[in-house]
Amino acid sequence: MELQEKILEKLNQQLNNELYAAYIYQAMGAQFEAEGLEGFASWMDAQTREELEHARKFYDYINERGGRVELEAIDKPPSDFGSPLEAFQKALEHEEMVTDKINQLVKLAREEDDYATESFLQWFVDEQVEEEESVNAIIDKLEMVGDSDSGIYLLSKELGRRE
Ligand code: FEO
Question: Is-contact 56 72, C-beta < 8 A?
């Protein structure tokens, strides 16, 4: 069964959202690099790679279903996200927005009786729970650390161990 036009359009939009997410995380990483917080920067690098993989999943799925991938312009991300706490809070806000978009897509797939797309999206539903949880855990730690430079340094080091 071919992808319906409306669903194809939303899948292409989500492909763009994932690329934009990669862009945001890379911009955050660039800021952390500039600030000498290499651990946070490397966490952001890993996150950027994950987002590119997410985008690739949409790319592959659209193709598998015989749809046409349409690449749109990627918005310019901000270049300054404030303190590490503010940056991770913005990351969480962004993930919540992505969760909302994925949920809207699931709803549309259900309304259109597109069970294959619904099943494809289930991976993202689960992934979003993990993404929000991991960013939330970092926010909790940053709140504990407060303005302590040594605390931020140690936390950055800890996050830099992410594979
Ligand atoms: Fe691909 Fe972080 O959502």
Answer: no
